[in-house]
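Reviewers asked in the last cycle whether our approach scales beyond single polypeptides. To address this, we selected a multi-component target totalling 920 residues and predicted its structure end to end. The input consisted of the following lines:
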Amino acid sequence: MSDGMNMTARDAIFAKLREHKSPQEDAYPLPPVAVFGDCDASPERFAKNLAQMGGKLLPRKPGESIAHVIDAAFPARQNLCTAVPEVEGTLRIEDLEDHYQANKVDVMVVRAAFGIAEVGGIFLSEVELKEHLADVHLAQHLVVLLSQAELTGNMHTAYRDRSEFKTAGYGVVMSGPSATADIQGVLIRGAQGVRSLSVIWD
Amino acid sequence: MSNKPIPHAKSAAEWIEKEDHYTFHDERLWDMRQKRDEQMHLLPEWQDLREQASRLKEHTLAHLPHYLEQFEENARRNGIHVHWARDGAEHNRIVESLLKKHNKTSIIKSKSMITDECEMREYLEPRGYSVTETDLGERIQQLDGQMPSHVVVPAVQKLTGDVAQLFAKYYDTDPASDDPHELAEAQRIAARPALLTGDTGMTGGNFLVAETGTFVVCTNEGNADLSANLPDLHIATLGIERLIPRMADLGVFIRLLSRSALGSPITQYTTHFRKPKKGGEMHVILVDNGRSDRLAMDDFWSSLKCIRCGACMNTCPVYRRSGGQSYGAVYSGPIGAIIDPTFNAKKFSTLPFASTMNGSCTNVCPVKINIHDQLYKWRQVLAERHEIPFVKRALMKMAGRLLAQPALYRLSISGAEVALKTVPRFALYNYFNQWGKHRELPHPVKETFHSWYKKNRLNKEKGAEKEETEA
Amino acid sequence: MKIGLFIPCYIDAFYPKTGIATLELLEKLGQNAEYPMDQTCCGQPMANSGCSPDAKMTEELFVRNFAKYDVIVAPSGSCVHHVRDHFDAMEQTADVRHVRQNTYELVEFLHDVLKVRDFPWAEFPHRVGLHNSCATLRSLRTASMSELGEPFFSKPKTLLSAVKGISFATPKRPDECCGFGGTYSVTEEAVSAKMGLDKVTDHHEAGAEYIVSADTSCMMHQQGCAERNGVPIRFIHIAEILNGAKA
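The resulting structure, written as structure tokens, was:
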């Protein structure tokens, strides 16, 4: 294994660090974990920040089905791939045969493990994505189901309280869709990943 | 690598002449600084966040071997292969050996400053491997054969027209396009096949979490999530200084990073890699490349706290007006000016002088690196090592002697003749010639304050004393 | 309180009016100020170039000249910053420590030590743009810094507000460095001069007739840039306004 071959580099780096490090250990104690700022975990705060990050909240009338909300938002969509039991779609994420098939998906529906009000962010891991880690990002549009009971206030409370950060192999906080401002500072939504990100309360 | 000092002043002077580029560049980065300020005003806890981030980084650096071991142990337990590289060359050989072992040839890559630092593309491409940058800005720079101009917005020195010209060559788009949307779409369309066929994904990483063996990648385009997850082989390169102790500490840094960089509350994607994907292999290469040496430098070790947000570049009036390419280095701007000389003191000897020492960089730094103090310190170190121009050294030596001798000094400023005798002609000429290129000289006055004081205070007092005695 | 007056080399040679105004102002305020005749410079040009050892003798001379005073006052934020924060090349004797701890920039001396708030003789019927040098702003802290988001304060503005007839223009980037930077103005003359031009243009477009500052060095550079490019704006040191200059 190449790990073994590299023991000499490892030893050399550690030896240097141990012998020559300027900052002394005693002078820099570990500060306690800090939780600062606004910890409001309300759906209103989430929605406001989701919008700021370029995401959308899809309105849902009482009793309206999720499928109906999606159909209304994406009338022209063809392939609707779903990772949730609530929506049937045209194909299930588990049935995607390869990335080329995922590349043709117009709308992908997933359920987020939780949301972070401060940044309008949602959390996805291999659990919600059924191990199809890349496919969610190949889709053109992403629809996210999110329970209002699964909101946390800010990034401090998220990392402190949500165990998913310590259990997931792959975990992404998505705040709005893919974006870039690399050409003359013009903000463009839909760079390499999804062109839009919509949240439905459920 | 050439050792010749980077001609920052000359390149910057040329940059200023490109008026459209100059104006856009200055205003774009100033706008990012303004947006950063808006975010700061929204968070009353801003200074507490900076203090906490600084203390966490200082603690981690003071205990670096401990946290590196902890990270390594946890990452290995999760099935990640951990490698160590003493320098860029060793890093590149590790990547190559992994590619060979798995019979891979095409890398799709998200933005990573450290692979640029290791000159990885330059190493792999002639050996028959393809490396495709998938971040839009980084791809633009790759196609143009340039180093990133900025740590966060690599192609910020280019206008839409420059990108249109470049994309026309490679993507067959309209060379006269003036629509960034159209050009970004061209990149999306061109990137997809590369992403789908690439057999190896490479990313950098913003943070290593020791407690869990996680590495964190922050992007806006989503290209890291695609690059890392599409192929079965994911190689991530990170500097050994990227560590933080606990998962619960991450919030402090994520809250500061994008706010400081772009003035947005968070990057669109904050991705945490802790385990290889099902059926995939994940490798983390931890690179030293001068970092352990820097950690041993009393005056400069704290530059390792840097989280690469680029806020110091955005606020720097010199960087904004000289463009990233003028620094001739992977890391430009104020942070570049204090870390580049640790890689090569001669080559980057001019960079600590590319500053007015205004101190704004230190104030915006989210991890409280005393950047402008380190610039000042570097000047002393470089002068001591004779890495500053001979003319300047000679002039300073003369000036130092002259200003320490009041009588001689008074003589010297009372007439140009004496000045030329005490300070060599070439040095003085050089000074006034440079000053006068784009500026008028101060207007001559009839008498110095010194002689006015002598006439109007000292002599008067003496006169008064005399009168008193006579009376 | 015996005050030693430090008049930096470029004020002595090019802007004696500023030195005279500083002295007269202190005298008007009933202070006993004296100008030691053997003074030259604070040593900053050499130290900022990295040549601290070459600055050492000049700095030692400064200490010899000024150690006997209770306080040292200078109409230059940048020099005071050097004395206070960078007098490191020589042995830190009691005299050196005394000088470092008791050297004040004129504005902070008036504002913090004498606590003067009235200048009944001062009248300046003009619109001025206030230039805070980076040394006064970020080292001496005589005004709030935009990057830190701290509550607004400005000692020079507090003092100037007592002047009859004065009004203020607000440039778009009030904290932006003007590009002087000591030897930087020569080392990177093109960027430096461009920054200076941007600065004076910003003030001019904000409607300032005068740029007023506690740092003559910044203004010497800005004036050079304004004159070369035909930007119609004038320059005056804060000491002159507070001392009663009308134009």
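Chain B has a mean pLDDT of 94. We regard this as preliminary and will revisit it once experimental data from Aim 1 are available.
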